[in-house]
Write a structure and sequence with these properties.
The protein is of the alpha+beta class. It contains twelve helices and 14 strands. The protein is elongated. The N terminus is likely disordered.
Length: about 550
């Protein structure tokens, strides 16, 4: 009788004669049944694993068995092959896994799959490979029968082995040992996490102390000269010093997050593995693995990858900073100041890419077409970009500022009508502390014209007007001597790199004569150098009896 029921491809085993079968369109498809072209297909399950799909024509005639009923009879035959001798789990199975053989028996245009072992010489029919199966799989009947025979042989042998008393005892022992190992690993990771909390607290306190020092340095600058080089250098030094603890804190937090996700991943894997050891829990383990766990693993792996990228970028940034820290020069200082922002940008981009791929993978696992998602996502991205053009432009311009090294923290810049010391910068905006002590935030998209007054070197474009009747030649000698004496002064020696680039008479009128000179200085020293030259020139001209003029060009 079982042979008749499972022989799904023949007329004698497809249903009861004379009883009309409903068409596929007449009823809603049962769970697991799909209509694919001219076929209705259903999965064959064994221990929670879908082995393959069988097919029947969508237009079922009166003497054919429905695909759902056919699948039920096949699974009943498989369950009979895995049945236990008694009611106890340790009684063993009726069929011997060592001698079980799945055989193929041709039956005209079809093929039968049967099972035998040393204790059951009479073959037990499992299923019939029909012409519909062959057409659906696009394989000849004999080839498809061989494929299914191999699949059933390995799946049944594996299921029978799991149900043997010796295997159950060994799996219980392995599970107990694994539980101890996993528990010890978890305890060790928790201890490390608790110990790392102290180190993280120390780094947080150090970062906060550095921030307070930077704020204090900025306050001192507001009380002194508007663009004092001494305060600028100290400000840059504090910013460089603060970058290392901040980077260390980011690496430390990423490492702690990596350990937390490692614990979660460890126990997820342990749960699925433990459920797969026993036949009673294998279906549940397969459900968890193929549905929830795959999605969970996707996001856990994404989080782990993000943490690994953050640690790798942070370590590379620290290594780069250590390599250049001992080299003198402002360019190295500027690179050190750019490292944290660039590292943060790289991590942010990598995070976006990783989680975007994780979202697509999750949607694919849920059965949603990623092509449709990408199309919809592209339209949404286009709409968002049109609605937030300035924000996108801010980030693009900010990236170019970093790549081109237009300015860094500590530079004195003029952006439009605003000027001040760069106190903080990100991909979206730059913050300046102006001469009045105000903090000015400027989006990068509005920074169309940027003047960096402290990049590598600066210049004093010095002009002074004397009386039209004065001796201009003598006045130029006084101006040259004043600049040379200032450059030779030990206090100002480091501020002036090229005392007199050129000097001459810039303008002549009845109102006065304008003398003009160019002096090359260290970054941001031009303001104080110009003030010192003014003070010395006023005294030198007074001693020489040369009066000042009132030419308009004097106002610079």
């Amino acid at each position: 009788m079982l042979f008749v029921c499972t022989n799904g491809g023949t007329a004698r085993g497809q249903g009861l004669p004379g009883v009309p079968a409903p068409t596929a369109s007449a009823l809603a498809l049962p769970a697991g049944v799909r209509q694919e072209g001219p076929f209705l297909t259903a999965p064959i399950w064994l221990d929670g694993v879908a082995l393959f799909r069988i097919a029947t024509p969508a237009a079922v005639t009166g003497d054919q068995m429905s695909v759902e009923a056919r699948a039920q009879f096949i699974e009943a035959a498989l369950a009979q092959l895995e049945a236990l001798r008694g009611s106890q789990a340790d009684s063993g199975t009726l069929y011997d896994p060592k001698t079980l053989r799945v055989k193929v028996q041709p039956d005209g245009p079809q093929s039968l799959l049967l099972a035998v072992d040393a204790h059951h010489p009479n073959p037990l029919p499992i299923l019939t490979v029909t012409a519909a199966d062959a057409k659906y799989q696009s394989e000849p009947t004999s080839t498809l029968a061989q494929q299914w025979q191999s699949t059933l042989q390995s799946a049944l042998t594996r299921g029978l082995v799991k149900r043997q008393p010796a295997t159950l005892a060994r799996n219980l022992r392995d599970l107990w040992h694994a539980a101890i190992v996993f528990a010890l690993i978890t305890i060790a990771l928790i201890v490390v996490l608790r110990a790392s909390r102290k180190r993280e607290t120390m780094l947080i306190e150090q970062v906060e102390a550095d921030e307070r020092a930077i704020d204090q340095a900025q306050s001192e600058r507001e009380e002194s000269e508007a663009a004092s080089a001494r305060h600028r250098l100290r400000f840059m030094g504090l910013a460089i010093r603060a970058a290392d603890p901040a980077m260390s804190l980011a690496i430390w937090r990423s490492t702690r997050g990596l350990m937390v996700w490692a614990i979660v991943l460890l126990w997820f894997g342990a749960l699925v593995w433990a459920l797969s050891l026993f036949p009673q829990t294998t279906p549940l383990g397969e459900i968890i693995f193929h549905r929830a766990t795959r999605i969970a693993f996707t996001w856990i792996a994404a989080a782990l990858l993000v943490r690994i990228v953050a640690i790798a970028v942070g370590q590379f940034a620290r290594s780069y900073g250590s390599h250049t820290r001992g080299v003198r020069g402002e360019e190295n200082a500027r690179r050190l100041l750019r490292v944290p922002t660039v590292a943060h940008t790289v991590v942010a981009i990598a995070t976006f890419v990783v989680f975007f791929v994780a979202i697509l993978t999750t949607l694919s696992l849920m059965g949603i077409s990623t092509g449709s998602v990408l199309t919809i996502g592209g339209l949404v991205a286009l709409a968002v970009s049109l609605a937030a053009q300035n924000l996108v432009r801010d980030f693009l311009n900010g990236f170019l500022v970093l790549v081109e090294d237009q300015y860094v923290v500590g530079d004195y810049v003029i952006i439009g009508s605003r000027s001040g010391l760069v106190e903080h910068m990100s991909l979206r905006s730059v913050q300046l502390r102006d001469n009045a002590g105000n903090l000015v935030t400027i989006p990068h998209s509005l920074a169309s014209d940027v003047v960096n007054c402290s990049r590598n070197w600066s210049r004093v474009d010095y002009r002074i007007a004397i009386d039209a009747g004065a001796d201009s030649e003598r006045a130029m000698q006084i101006l040259r001597r004043t600049i040379d004496e200032l450059a030779a002064d030990r206090e100002w020696h480091g501020a002036i790199t090229d005392p007199v680039e050129w000097i001459g008479i810039d303008a002549v009128s009845a109102a006065g004569i304008v003398l003009r000179a160019s002096v090359k200085t260290a970054p941001l020293r031009q303001f104080e150098v110009k003030r010192e030259i003014n003070a010395r020139m006023v005294e030198a001209l007074r001693r020489a009896g040369i009066a000042l003029g009132s030419h308009d060009a004097y106002a610079v």
